[in-house]
Amino acid sequence: MLEYHEMRIDIFTLFPSMFLSPFQESILKRAQERGILTLFLHQIRDYAFDRHQMTDDVPYGGGQGMVMKPEPIFRAVRTILGVGLRTDAVPVILLSPQGRSFTQDVARELAVKPRIALICGHYEGVDERVREHLVTDEISIGDFVLTGGELPAMVIVDAVARYLPGVLGAAEGAEQDSYASGLLEGPQYTRPAVYQNMDVPEVLRSGDHAAIARWQRKMALRRTMERRPDLLGRLEMTAEDRQILDEIRRDLSEPYEC
Ligand code: 9D3
């Protein structure tokens, strides 16, 4: 049973051309061609009606940097989403360092909506009235400082689009659920079997599917233990997993092994 749930995303930005090539390649291109995803870019400056089309101004109370003015943002969003904007109908998301953290769960949550709007801030931030009276949600993509909300908006579109039915193939779709299982991926190989004296682990070429599955699970558990022990705590482990973890601990305590 294939359901084709379509999604529309309106993006409000001072730099719409930043989005062009990321949206015109690969999976996002295909999703749009298939009509599953519709992306609209809106230039906030087009909604600044003063003589110089000013979109930012000095902060009240002083301080360094500029603040994005409220009027162009309100006008742009209300024009595109409709004047009588029901805030519960279309989520209006501000990308900002003060937002809640973007995670796979948030991507899944957004992917079920038929329509969302993304507002990209720039400069030192946006007038607080935008947050208070226009925005329904505020999202950050992580604890690092960027120059604006444009790259974060692209990150969100990419992560959300993968969840729209029909965007990925069936195999990749199933793989998503395994990511939700919360383990890092183990090592992967392709041909040749030997490259400059570096060989592919024997078990992967053995044809023993049970042994292969167990080895892959072991490597995934081991990599997660080494690099992201925080993920292991949240993992639902089978008896087999516990046995494999014990085995890994033994391997790691042996000198010269692995
Ligand atoms: C003066 C304090 N700065 C916060 C550390 C102000 C500031 C920095 C960077 C205000 C805006 C920005 C631009 N960044 C974003 O708009 C942004 C962002 C980010 O910088 N990191 C992670 N996620 C996001 S979402 C939007």
In brief, what are we looking at here?
This protein has 258 residues and is α/β, with parallel strands linked by helices.
Unreliable stretches, pLDDT < 50, 5 or more residues?
A: none
Structural class: alpha/beta
Number of domains: 2
Assigned CATH class of the largest domain: Alpha Beta
The biggest sheet amounts to:
5 strands, parallel
Q: Number of helical segments? A: 10
CATH topology of the largest domain: Alpha/beta knot
Written description of the protein model:
With 258 residues, the chain is of the alpha/beta class. The protein folds into two domains: 7-161, SPOUT methyltransferase, trefoil knot domain (Alpha/beta knot, 3-Layer(aba) Sandwich), CATH 3.40.1280; 181-251, Trp Operon Repressor, Chain A, CATH 1.10.1270.20. Helices cover 39% and strands 16% of the residues. It contains ten helices and nine strands. Strands 2-1-6-5-7 form a five-stranded parallel sheet, sandwiched between helices. The protein has a two-stranded antiparallel ribbon with strand order 3-4. Strands 8-9 form a two-stranded antiparallel sheet. α4 (104-111) packs across α6 (150-161) and α8 packs across α10 (239-253). The longest helix is centred in the last third of the chain and has 19 residues, at 209-227. The radius of gyration is 24 Å and the shape is elongated. Bound molecules: ligand 9D3. Ligand 9D3 binds at residues 95-97, 121, 124-125, 140-142, 144-149, 152.
